[in-house]
Amino acid sequence: MTRLLAILLCTVPVPALTHPHIFIDTGVDIILDESGALSHLKITWTYDEYYSLLITEELKIDQDFDGVLTEEDIARLTGFDMNWVPGFNGDLVALLDEALLDLSGPQQPTATLKDGRITTTHVRQVEATPSLAGHILSLRAYDETYYTAYDVTLPVKIKPASICTLDKIAPDIDGELEQMRQMLLTINADADLEENEIPLIGAKFATEIRVSCPAS
Questions:
Q1: CB within 8 A of 22, min separation 6: which ones?
Q2: Predicted TM-score of the model (pTM)
Q3: For FRET with 157, which of 12, 14, 139, 144 sits at 20 to 30 Å CA-CA?
Q4: What's one Pfam family the UniProt record gives for this protein (predicted)?
């Protein structure tokens, strides 16, 4: 879906309009503690083939191109995407009944290379370990600038299994694109988008992961 969306965005007649350069298939483990409160989120990112190739070349791993990493390769690859600047949210927004949850920085990073694609995982502790009973948890993975496109195609699970329900709510791509098209038609093609206060678009194309838990 995101690759098709990128093509559509590139056809919009405004040269400075952003479009994705990195594509990441995303999955989430929603980890509960013994009381059923939200404890951690484990995030999985699988990068597209082109970006994976750039990273392996930059880090000088898998130099024989057999797809098998040495221990030294794994050590260099692990954590390559975890050097976050202060204030970076990890391209993940977590809300509990519309209130923003505080998440730790990335922990326990892993990295693998399979079929030419890098997959990494990291764990984020949920501060205050909130109860989910009677509440709605909403997770969205996105880069607000849409330089990176996240597509929730990998498994999303609640661990351990619980009575909470889990839904994936896809964005209204056609509707959002039409709104963007109408907005852009009002702007001169040579205009500066920042001066015209063009909104950041990443959130508009984000899939929502929604967890609803009955009151105890």
A1: 47, 48, 51, 147, 148, 149
A2: 0.84
A3: 144
A4: DUF1007
